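User: Can you predict the 3D structure for this chain?
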Amino acid sequence: MFTVHAIDPAHLAGVRAAGTDVSGLPVERLTAEGGEPLRCCLRDAAAGEQLILFGYEPKLPPSPYREIGAVFTHAEPCDGPGSTAYPAAWRGRPQVLRAYDANGRIHPATRTHDGTAPETELADILSDPAVTRVDSRNIAYGCFMFTVTRA
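Assistant: Here is the predicted structure, written as structure tokens:
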């Protein structure tokens, strides 16, 4: 089995308190149009919710594969995803499943999937003992969605 991880609430608290992202740039505050993928609670935003948009760098060991990408979260703390299972609201959404090894390097098990049976795809990737984590990424924009590790 595996565990799905949203962005760490402590990290989000720091971003919200400082008003800046990992690059020192100010967060953007906006009102959701609806459909923005929220990395704090792993669902799409409803129209009218208050959000922030900021640059996020997933926690990887120092390597050339570390990246910063834009993410949406609630502007204020929320209850989080409420589960460590694959996000139900994002079933059927095509994703890139980017596998990493212990050195923070992209592993050849990386692949795209069409959103059908994501648990099967993730179990297959994580069956390789060299894979330590998988980051799900938006297929069109390439931005971080969530991290998956072995349970």
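Strands lie at 2-5, 28-31, 37-38, 43-44, 50-56, 69-74, 95-100, 111-113, 133-138, 144-150. Residues 94 and 114 are 4 Å apart (CA to CA).
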